Amino acid sequence: MRVKTLLRTGSGVWVGVLLIAGLLFFSSGNTDTTIAYWGSITAQSTLLLPVVGAVCGAAAAWESARLRESGVAAWAPVRGELRIVGQRLAPLVVDGLLGIVVALGLFTPGDAFGLPGGPDAAVLVTAVVVLLGHLAAGYLVGRWLPKLLGPALMLVGGYFWGFWPAALAEPSWLRHLNGQGVGDCCRLDQEPSLRSLGATAAFSAGLVVAAVIVVVLRRTGRRRLVATAASLTGLACAIALAVPLGFGGEQARDRALLQCTGSRPQVCLWPEQQGRASEFRRWVKDADRKVRAVGVGPAERIEFAEPVPSRESVLVEAATSGVRLDPPACAERPYATYPGDEAALVIHPWLALTAGVAPDALLDWPSESVRRAEEVRRLPADAQAAWFARNMRSVRDCSVKPDLSPAAYAHRASS
């Protein structure tokens, strides 16, 4: 069939228009959560995959119903039914691929094209398999349901199948079957989970194989049984891969990509951060010198979660890297009292101020805590070191109350 005739008689053109409009609508306000890292960008673009699947699946049901009503399979066998179905669905495949590309573009920040690497190929291939799965399901639904009911069912059902599992607390693994498992990925030290992507691909591939069996074995009485077996096999494989994941759709990134320089502390950067390596090292060295003057030692190795962090966030990360402010095990006991929270609320901004962060940049901390930290900063260095050592005891031991008043340490003079 000529391409011009296929486009004129099929639903590909208007489906493409509706799909792009739908993607623009659903992307509004949802594309500002990515970080400038291709793993995160590609993974989060799958948040729009349900729109692509629902629209294309509904169109596939419409085309399938038209083929059934025309009785084209009973005409002279110039073309096989699989070829006929493939030709009718080909424009929808193109629409779906265009939708995947547009979704990726909507989630791509303007400065991403200077980043090393490119879009995550595994995520994009899985998205294509999900698209084919929706087309296969739409074809099967349109084959057996009335012409208007099939597309409506695929549009509504595809939408809920795409978005609903991610909103469920249980079963948490269900989100890995519909393509949303990696939607919240990734930090800079993470990448999309191949296990999650495999579960998604296995489920959708089962639907594709089932649809092909129904078409190819049209004159075989057991085609429904074989097709059902194929789809259930895909489902079983998908569940086996997804169940151990729970909510998580990410895995650790290859540590070989991390480049470390210097010593005490080492500054370790991912490829996306290498363009500002000199700034990272200068800021870390500055923070290291200042916090050591008051008796605090940074960690031996320091990494950063943001591709392009601000100077303030680098200083804070360096200053707090060697200090554990998490509640100890004693605070996790039932009915436990933990006075260390009060100390941690002041120690953290004190470390940030010591490293060189301006007070007005500490907006995430209570103003009272920042004010108290500024009072401590006016003490001599050895008095600040004594204040820190005393109140860290409260952070680590639930039985020790903090003593945060700077006046209690003011008598200590610098040597």
TrEMBL record:
Q: Which InterPro entries would you find in this protein's record?
A: DUF7224
Keywords in alphabetical order, please.
Membrane, Transmembrane, Transmembrane helix
Q: Which organism is it from?
A: Streptomyces triticagri
Q: What is this protein called?
A: DUF7224 domain-containing protein
One family name in Pfam for this protein: DUF7224
**Which positions, given as ranges, span the membrane?**
12-29, 35-62, 89-109, 121-141, 148-167, 197-218, 225-247
Q: Which domain of life is it from?
A: Bacteria
DUF7224 domain spans which residues? 267-398
